Automatic annotation (TrEMBL):
<dbReference type="InterPro" id="IPR016024">
    <property type="entry name" value="ARM-type_fold"/>
</dbReference>
<dbReference type="Pfam" id="PF03224">
    <property type="entry name" value="V-ATPase_H_N"/>
</dbReference>
<protein>
    <recommendedName>
        <fullName>ATPase V1 complex subunit H C-terminal domain-containing protein</fullName>
    </recommendedName>
</protein>
<dbReference type="GO" id="GO:0046961">
    <property type="term" value="F:proton-transporting ATPase activity, rotational mechanism"/>
</dbReference>
<dbReference type="InterPro" id="IPR011989">
    <property type="entry name" value="ARM-like"/>
</dbReference>
<dbReference type="GO" id="GO:0005765">
    <property type="term" value="C:lysosomal membrane"/>
</dbReference>
<keyword id="KW-0406">Ion transport</keyword>
<keyword id="KW-0813">Transport</keyword>
<comment type="similarity">
    <text>Belongs to the V-ATPase H subunit family.</text>
</comment>
<keyword id="KW-0375">Hydrogen ion transport</keyword>
<dbReference type="InterPro" id="IPR004908">
    <property type="entry name" value="ATPase_V1-cplx_hsu"/>
</dbReference>
<dbReference type="GO" id="GO:0000221">
    <property type="term" value="C:vacuolar proton-transporting V-type ATPase, V1 domain"/>
</dbReference>
Length: 269
């Protein structure tokens, strides 16, 4: 896989494993010979896989519909975890390189009267956790970078799912779930729905369990985002936020955690 992102220092288990996935080689020919993909899919993905970044850009500009069609067929038709990991990582890198590319998926779904979220939501039920959280990362990017915000029904489902993920005990992908939540709560409409699904109490519960400093930072950042909406800040004041933040502040070993707690206090109180 040719990408601009190989070699970056990983900051979470998801990114760490993505570095390994990028170094894999998929034998697309074997999928063609086994009749698991069509010749059209093979021609596109085998070329796209080894293309340089500027070549990928041209392929996306010239064949946006084919790009979405191929990746959706791969996501829905490939059962082998290792290959699906590779496909999702490739797709995530494509979106990361240019945020506007999320519109390719939105435009395709709109033209075909399809649900842009279904192929990714379907992957949230997989057993392989890398696949689950890589799909979640892509969902968050499309939801946050698209011109049109996520529809309420799907938004509610996704935020409930994220809320449950941060509460999972010993979740080795907790940082990835937290990162998705950080992205989502930058958008005011998403903040409102998160509070409606009792997201604040979930954050307080996790903060009280004394997680790592990075999780502390992520979740207090989420509270800081929520505090920018006056009505939500008022609801936060009625919760158990102050003593929880005070505990985080007293235990903080990293300056960035201290800063984000104090920033939340300044906005909220």
């Amino acid at each position: 896989m040719t990408t601009d992102y190989a070699g970056q220092i990983p900051t979470s288990k998801l990114q760490e494993h993505a570095e390994v996935v990028r170094k894999n080689n998929v034998n697309w020919k074997s999928y063609l010979q086994g009749q698991m993909i069509s010749s059209e899919v093979y021609e596109f993905i085998s070329k796209f896989d080894i293309a340089k970044p500027e070549e990928k850009t041209l392929m996306l500009q010239n064949n946006p519909t084919q790009f979405v069609t191929v990746f959706r067929m791969l996501m829905e038709g490939i059962s082998r975890d290792q290959t699906l990991q590779y496909v999702l990582t490739m797709l995530d890198d494509v979106l990361q390189a240019d945020k506007s590319r999320v519109e390719i998926f939105k435009d395709f779904a709109r033209r075909n009267k399809e649900n842009v979220w279904q192929p990714f939501f379907h992957l949230l039920d997989r057993d392989d956790k890398f696949i689950v959280y890589q799909a979640s990362r892509i969902i968050a990017k499309i939801a946050c970078w698209s011109k049109d915000q996520m529809e309420r029904k799907h938004l509610q489902s996704y935020l409930v799912w994220l809320k449950e993920q941060i509460k999972l005990p010993n979740n080795e992908y907790l940082l990835s779930a937290g990162r998705c939540l950080q992205m989502m709560l930058r958008i005011n409409n998403y903040r409102i729905v998160f509070v409606e699904v009792d997201g604040i109490s979930a954050i307080v519960q996790v903060l009280a369990s004394n997680p790592s400093f990075q999780v502390h930072y992520q979740l207090v950042f989420c509270l800081w985002c929520l505090s920018h909406n006056p009505s939500l800040a008022e609801k936060m004041n009625r919760g158990n936020i102050i003593p929880t933040l005070a505990d985080v502040l007293s235990d903080a070993v990293k300056e960035k955690v201290t800063r984000i707690v104090l920033a939340t206090f300044r906005v909220s109180y």
